[in-house]
Amino acid sequence: MCVTGKGTSTEDWQLLPAWLLAYGVEHLVLVDPERLHPAHVAELCGLAATCGLELWLVAHLPAGGA
To answer: Does the pTM of the predicted model rise above 0.85?
Structure first.
């Protein structure tokens, strides 16, 4: 299962751990985490730890060039 999106309300964040566990999500992939505010990355790291998820930090670099 792949889920993508951006929660904007406090309720979204409060329900997220229950939703992840209920649907058996096992991996949390952050693409371009360097673009996120450090506090958001810390929150997502905590979420992964709380829910027992594998956390993947992926830097999406353009192919080719220097």
So the answer is: no
